[in-house]
Each structure stands twice: as C-alpha cells, then as structure tokens.
Amino acid sequence: MILAIEGSPRKDGNSHTMLKAIVGGAREVGVPIQEVHLRDYRYESCVGCEQCRKDKICTKFHDGMTLLYPQIQEAKGLVLISPVHNYNITAWMKAFIDRLYCFYDFKKTRPRAWSSRLAGQGRKAVIGAIAEQADKKDMGFALEAMRLPLEAHGYEIVAELPILQLFDRGIIAKHPELIEKARMAGRTLAQTVQADQRRLT
Question: What is the domain range of residue 184?
C-alpha cells in the first residue's frame, strides 16, 4: 500500500491536484493507494514529552495522528506534498513529520544512538514542494524538511518534485508537462514498492 499525503490548507489547490496525478500514476500499476489531506485531520504538534520512548507510539494525544499511525506502518510507499510557506513546508506537514518521532528507538549512550522502527522494510517515498517563486533557492528548506526525516526513518526517496512559479488555485492542471511528471513519479513509486515487496516475499 501507498499513503499519499498533502499538507496544503487549500482544497483543490496545486498540492491537491499534483497529489491526484501521483495517485493516478500509482493506480496504473495496480498498487493500492490511500489519499490523505492533512487539513481534514485535527492533531497536535509534538510536545517532546518522551512518553513514546516507553509506549512505542504517541499516547500523549488521541487525535488525527492516532488514526494515521496504522496506515503509516502498513504502507511501504509514502508521498509527501506541500506548498512552500515562508521558505519551508506548511505547519500541517511539519506537525505531521514531528509526530513520527514516536517511531524512533534511542539508546542511553552519549551522544545518543538511535534507530527507526520503520527502517529496514524497503520503504520508498516521493516528495514534492510547490512555490510561487521562480528560483529554486526561494523554496528554502521545503524539500529538505521532508527528505531528511524520511531518510532518517529508512525511506528511499525515488523522486523529488520541485515545482516553481505556481500560485493560483489548481493552476498546475493547465501545465500538462507537470501533471505528467507527477503521474510518472507515482508510477515509479508504485513500481519500486511492488518490486521490492516481491523481492522480500
């Protein structure tokens, strides 16, 4: 299964439209895929209580992330799409990523050694960021803010989609070359997930 997540506050905006193209590409391969729009969920930011170190899942809150954790664990493919807000991902996406902290295991060494319980399972991911600006440097940390945490959890990033010069709601639909690029990223993700799971079984 693939879990496809977008972190835009806009329904039917560019992130939503790009996510649908990725989902469509994945479905062409025949891999089950679930869409998630973070604006439809209510969840808290991580407060660093560290209770998850003992419980192995976040028990501080019972919220939208409680619903998403089983899907995250089941899905071997993950898509994260966010518009660029102030040189970074949206607050919705940042809070989602921070709440993945509960999947880390830490040792008592100094400096502290750590590992992720999501790692070593052939997980793959696609990330994308959409910006109004014309220069990629003006996307700031958006792609890195998704890539680095996912790699720390053991995901292999199979495609990155930096999209520039788009702002008006859903205008990406008028750029067939970008929609095709997103569709192909979905196909690539599904194919790599499918191939890896066949190899592991």
Answer: 2-200
